[in-house]
Every structure is written in C-alpha cells, then in structure tokens.
C-alpha cells in the first residue's frame, strides 16, 4: 500500500483520472476502496461470493490459540503493555468485537467495503478522504457510534496506544468530525497516500464515551464497550475466552456481513504446551485445531474418536504469501553486526536433515520475505527492479546484483561438513578464532548465543542446530519462557535469536515500515525485531509505498527482498502451501473458500445434523 497510487471503485477510474489532471477534488461516493482501483463487487452486491447467505446460526466453535500465544492477561490489544487474546483486534484480519469504517473482502488482494461507513469520498490527489457513517451504527449498549468516536480513537491510539500505530499512521496530518456522521482524514501531501485511506478504513473504532470513565492506557481484564458481531462472554484469564454472538447486531444484514459470523459462541482455549492441547482436542475438549507441527500431523491424530470418524482432517490451499518465518538474528548486538558471522550461522543450520528427520518432508524451504507469492525475488535483477537498485550499488553487497538469495543446501544426511567448513572460514575472516574449543573474538570474549522461544515443541529443531554451532566453538543454549515474558522481551528486543513468522499482505505498503524500516528498528514493540537499520531498505520501502501499479509494486518488493535476504538478518525456516485442519465433524462450510483466508470463524456454521450423528456415535460406544 503506497502513495499516489490509484484507489477507486470500478467504473470511477476515468472520473478520478480527470480529477488528477484538474487538481484536488472530491470523487463520487465510493462503496469500496482498493489499492489499484480494482473492485470485484459492485455497489449493489448482496453478499460475498465465499459465504452461504442462508447459513444457519447457532452452536459453538471452540479452537486452540495460535502457536505464538500461550496465555493472555488483558482485553486491551491497542497498547504496548499486556498480552491480549485472539479474536479481539490488533493482529486479526477482522476483530470479532470491534467494528471499523470498512471491512476486508478476503477474495481480493486488498479491497475493503463499507461497514460503519456507507461510503467514502477520496480526493483526486488522495490527500484526504471523507467517510460518511451509517446513522444506524451502534455500540452494544445501544448508543450511536459517531464520527467523534473515530476522531477520538485515532488521536488516542497515536498518543497512548501501541507504538506501531505511530509508525503506520505517521502520515495522517489531521482527523476531524464534519458533524456526527462524517469524518475527514487529511494526509501529508508527500505521505503514503495510496495506503492511508485503506489503513484508516480498517482500524477498529473505540468508544469515546466509555473511555471518559475508564483508563485506556492500562491493561485490563474487564470487558470494554464494543460494537462488533460478537461481545465478550466468559473470560478466564490465561485459560480461555468466549465471544458471544450479538443477536441484534446492528450490521448483521449489511452485504459485507451476510452469511458470516454464524456461531452463537466462539471460544479460544489456551494451553502451555501444544501436546497437552492436542490431548484435549482428541478427547473433545474443543472442536477445531490448526496443526502447525508436522510430526503431530503425521503421527499424533490417533485414537477411538479418529477411528470412528468423529474427528476429521483436511488440508486447504493457502494462497497468501507464506510469511517470513525464520530464526531472526538481533543485529543490535555487536556480536552479530558482521555479516560474515550471520552467514556462518545460516550455514550451520541443516534444513535438509531437519525436514527429512523431524518434519517427514512436509515443508518447503523458505528463502524470501515473500515466499509463495509473485513478490519473491527470482533470477538476477532486471528492468524496473534493477533501476531501483542501481543508484545504491556502492552501498549494497555485490550479491544483491547477482542471483536471488538461495539458502545453503546440504545432502540431508546430517553430516554437513562442507557447510560447516565454509562457516568456520567465515568466522575466521571475521576475526574469531577457536581457543581450547571455544570461539573467541580478538578480546578473548566467547561467542555465546541464546535461542529464545515459547514452549517445548521447537526444542527438537533447535537442539540439533545448537550441536552444529558447538562444533564451531559457539556456546549456544535454548531458553523457553512463558508468553508474558516472551512478549516483554520481544517488545524490548532483549534476545539473541528467536523464531517468528510474520505474514505479509498481498499488497504490501506502509506495513513494511513496521517490519523493516530504520525507524522501526528503534521503536519499542515494532515488528523489526532483527533491528535492520539501513537507508537503502528505507528507500525500497518508499518505492513500495509509492508504486503506481502492481508491476511497480512487484519490482520494488523484489528489490527489498534481495537486500534483506542477502543481508543475512534471518536464517530462513520453512512453509507449507496448505492449512492443516483437524475438526470434530460438527460443521459445514460454503462451497467456495475465500482465496486469502481460512474463512473458518466467519463463514463456517454449526451443522446440527452432523453434530447429532457425532453425539449418537459417542453414546453408542
């Protein structure tokens, strides 16, 4: 998402182009927005193509927390302090409890359609956007949602919210209410104009009146006033959270919501260990689980409930960029500043053996921040991509101008002597030497590395890697911490190496500032956990943000990919092109799956007939 690119509704491209020629002006009201002007659904659409518009309502969907969350201690996801549960807001595709001005359609790369806002008027030069709010929009206590709530939300998040908001929204110049039902965002003329209207349109809106008597900037387990399709039900801090569907939800019949949010209750269960969570699932403690561990997927789904067909498994296509999953090296620390040290660490990781011996060959090796997408760099840079890189040739490694990064490849036997020899030579060239079996720098200080992670499941991957590092004389250890401590250390960048996965958008834009920019490297709580602080990276992010069409976006994204991957800030791990799902056979779903989402929570439904059959089989045993 980026400046001066075209955002418009289908059929309005010509009028906006005319507006660009004549200067700032208001476009006709738009029912939706997208980064490059393409909208699948017209202004009179009745429902999304990937829903069942007459899906039955009822029942409960209970599912395990994501792999990166093992607990929660706050219901406020908008501040730095505390760990919020899933479903609530900050990192979800759509909050279950908070509405936004517009909402994503998950069968398009970046399109949004009216939710709280019935329309948007976008200046031809994209320096402002006016949203007209629906007068029927309501909070769960029945009070109206107004433009004043939107204005208050923006300034409160910028001043007191998570630092990521300041990174993403720094080009918003002003937000003002034009009465109760219109809000105007004004953007910096040289800002991220393509992205900003989309970004502000999808931010959860908070209640100004509620926070006049409640403190915003502190963690709390007390449910706040919300507005979405669900409200807070039973909350057991650190263990489970239930969201209850709002029967008279004000936006239930809007086209963007028809056929969605069909479960009466959605419950997330939290477990300290995934293996314990699996045992609970097999026994019926909850009803759906996405499996991220290949060993479990291959061997652990056994027992009478599986044998009887009460538990089903399936794999569905994952068409999203695979995500930058890797060991992230914290280059803020002096011991990792030399690129040769980071290269050596990459060489010491034997992925081929890991995939064969531990993962049953289930994964593909990562080698890009945009794996599984057209944004991934390939071959040598040419054309528009090369033109972006050329002015910075003197500031970039020569490898950037050669073939795209490919991680080291071993023979898979576990005896990666060639790679280990290369790693030892790189460390020697970087000034490290082995003394009495310990790798030390010129000051005699040993190279010590701590792998920080959540849960025990990843130990089986890290321990063989640690053994390889020890062969180089590196003192490597693994530390497992609880969710709260892990979050604090990530927010403070207090780690050597950790494993993270950051899923990228189909249309990257200002989000890349939070991921890789120099400013993010110095912003507590940003996603730039590796600490990449490079003006050339910043320039490529600006090119992404300013791309005028998708071809320009692809060229800029590939250039960024080359620089980051050849900088060896990460040790790429792996990805799958499918979602691996296990579920109790109590559900049904539409024939069409949303291309860019699992679609489980918002498009599946409880199937009473299937559920009754499951209960009958259980009773007969």
What does this entry look like structurally?
The protein is an alpha+beta fold and 621 residues long. Among the domains are: 13-46 and 79-211, Periplasmic binding protein-like II (D-Maltodextrin-Binding Protein, domain 2), CATH 3.40.190.10; 324-575, Dipeptide-binding Protein, domain 3 (Roll). Helices cover 29% and strands 19% of the residues. The chain is built from 20 helices and 25 strands. The strands form eight sheets. A five-stranded mixed β-sheet has the order 19-18-20-14-21. A four-stranded mixed β-sheet has the order 2-11-10-9, with no helix packed on it. The chain has a four-stranded antiparallel β-sheet with strand order 5-6-8-7, covered by helices on one side. A hairpin with a 4-residue loop joins strand 7 (172-177) and strand 8 (182-187). The termini are far apart. 44% of the residues are buried. The model is unreliable at 1-25 (pLDDT under 50).
Task: Sum up the structure in keywords.
globular, 621 residues, 20 helices, 4-stranded mixed β-sheet, 5-stranded mixed β-sheet, D-Maltodextrin-Binding Protein, domain 2, alpha+beta
């Amino acid at each position: 998402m980026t400046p001066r690119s075209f955002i418009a509704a289908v059929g309005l491209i010509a009028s906006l182009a005319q507006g660009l020629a004549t200067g700032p002006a208001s476009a006709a009201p738009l029912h939706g927005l997208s980064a490059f002007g393409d909208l699948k659904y017209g202004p009179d659409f009745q429902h999304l193509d990937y829903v069942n518009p007459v899906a039955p309502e009822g029942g409960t969907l209970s599912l395990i927390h994501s792999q990166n969350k093992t607990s929660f201690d706050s219901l406020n996801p908008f501040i730095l302090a505390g760990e919020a549960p899933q479903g609530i807001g900050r990192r979800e595709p759509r909050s279950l409890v908070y509405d936004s001005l517009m909402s994503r359609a998950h069968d398009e790369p970046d399109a949004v359609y009216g939710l709280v806002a019935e329309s948007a008027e976008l200046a031809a030069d994209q320096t402002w956007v006016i949203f007209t709010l629906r007068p029927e929009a309501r909070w769960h206590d029945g009070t109206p949602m107004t433009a004043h709530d939107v204005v208050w939300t923006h300034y409160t998040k910028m001043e007191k919210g998570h630092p990521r908001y300041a990174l993403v929204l720094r080009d918003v110049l002003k937000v003002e209410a034009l009465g109760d039902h219109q809000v105007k965002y004004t953007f910096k003329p040289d800002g991220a104009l393509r992205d900003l209207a989309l970004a502000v349109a999808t931010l959860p809106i908070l209640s100004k009146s509620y926070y006049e008597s409640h403190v915003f900037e502190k963690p709390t387990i007390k449910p706040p006033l919300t507005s979405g399709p669900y409200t807070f039900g039973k909350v057991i801090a650190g263990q489970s959270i239930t969201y209850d569907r709002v029967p008279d939800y004000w936006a239930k019949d809007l086209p963007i919501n028809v056929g969605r949010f069909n479960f009466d209750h959605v419950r997330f269960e939290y477990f300290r260990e995934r293996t314990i969570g699996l045992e609970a699932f097999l026994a019926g403690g909850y009803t759906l689980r996405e499996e991220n561990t290949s060993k479990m997927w291959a061997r652990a789904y056994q027992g009478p409930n599986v044998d009887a067909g009460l538990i089903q498994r399936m794999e569905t296509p994952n068409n999203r960029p695979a995500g930058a999953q890797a060991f992230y090296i914290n280059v803020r620390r002096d011991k990792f500043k030399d690129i040769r040290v980071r290269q050596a660490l990459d060489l010491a990781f034997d992925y081929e053996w890991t995939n064969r011996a531990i993962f049953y060959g289930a994964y593909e090796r990562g080698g890009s921040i945009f794996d599984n997408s057209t944004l991934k760099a390939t071959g040598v840079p040419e054309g528009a991509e090369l033109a972006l890189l050329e002015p910075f040739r003197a500031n970039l490694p020569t490898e950037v101008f050669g073939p795209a990064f490919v991680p080291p490849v071993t023979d898979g036997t576990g005896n990666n002597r060639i790679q280990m020899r290369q790693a030892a030579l790189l460390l020697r060239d970087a000034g490290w030497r082995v003394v009495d079996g310990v790798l030390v720098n010129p000051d005699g200080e040993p190279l010590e590395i701590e792998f920080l992670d959540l849960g025990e499941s990843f130990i089986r991957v890290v321990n063989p890697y640690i053994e390889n590092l020890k062969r180089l004389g590196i003192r490597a250890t693994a530390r497992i911490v609880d969710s709260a401590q892990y979050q604090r250390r990530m927010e403070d960048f207090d780690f050597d190496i950790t494993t993270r996965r950051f899923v990228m958008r189909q249309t990257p834009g200002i989000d890349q500032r939070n991921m890789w920019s120099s400013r993010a490297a110095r912003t507590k709580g940003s996603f730039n956990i590796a600490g990449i602080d490079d003006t050339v990276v910043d320039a490529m992010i600006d090119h992404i943000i300013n791309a005028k069409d998708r071809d320009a976006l692809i060229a800029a994204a590939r250039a960024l990919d080359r620089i980051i991957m050849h900088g060896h800030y990460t040790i790429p791990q792996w990805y799958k092109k499918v979602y691996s799902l296990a579920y109790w056979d109590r559900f049904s779903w539409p024939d069409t799956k949303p291309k860019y989402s699992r679609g489980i929570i918002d498009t599946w439904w409880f199937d009473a007939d299937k559920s009754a059959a499951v209960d009958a089989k259980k009773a007969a045993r």
